[in-house]
Amino acid sequence: MNLNQITVPSLNLTKSIPFYEKLGLKLIVKALPHYARFECPDGHATFSIHLVEQLPKGDGIYVYFECDNLDEYIAALTQKEIVFDEPPSDRPWLWREARLKDVDGNQIILYHAGENRLNPPWRIKN
């Protein structure tokens, strides 16, 4: 089994699409006003947004995008006027992360974890 895509809710795809394109995702399906799908620049995963009448309550959705050169990537996005809630920082779970929200309040985390992505020291050994 392999993860194909993640879909997050949006109140307005015409506002959300440019945001995700600015992050570096490639738009591959544009079925307005209900659906849009993107290809991630690396790997084979896709990401989509779909129109909803109401967003989920609480903290919402968390989506993690892995970036090899995180700090350089964040600097480039900042030049494109992407605003981060939290700049890149080292986390106790051995990842380096930067956090922001999309136009609908979904939590977007850009991170680099290296070997710790799948093999942290506390991984269960089978």
Model description:
The chain has 126 residues and is of the alpha/beta class. Helices cover 17% and strands 36% of the residues. It has a 4-stranded mixed beta sheet with strand order 1-4-3-2, covered by helices on one side. A hairpin with a 5-residue loop joins strand 7 and strand 8. The relative contact order is 0.20. The model has no long low-confidence stretch (mean pLDDT 95).
Which range does the strand content fall in?
Answer: 35-45%
Q: Which regions have little confidence, pLDDT < 50, spanning 5+ residues?
A: none
Structural class by helix and strand composition: alpha/beta
Number of strands: 8
Question: What is the gyration radius calculated from CA atoms?
Answer: 15 Å
Shape, please? globular
Helix content: 10-25%
Order of helices and strands: EHEEEEHEEE
What is the makeup of the main sheet? Answer: 4 strands, mixed
Distance between the termini: 19 Å
Q: What do the pLDDT scores average to?
A: 95
Strand line-up across the major sheet? 1-4-3-2
Question: Please, how many helices?
Answer: 2
Please outline what is shown here.
By secondary structure, the chain is α/β, with parallel strands linked by helices. It contains two helices and eight strands.
Which keywords apply here?
globular, 2 helices, 126 residues, 4-stranded mixed sheet, 8 strands, single chain, alpha/beta
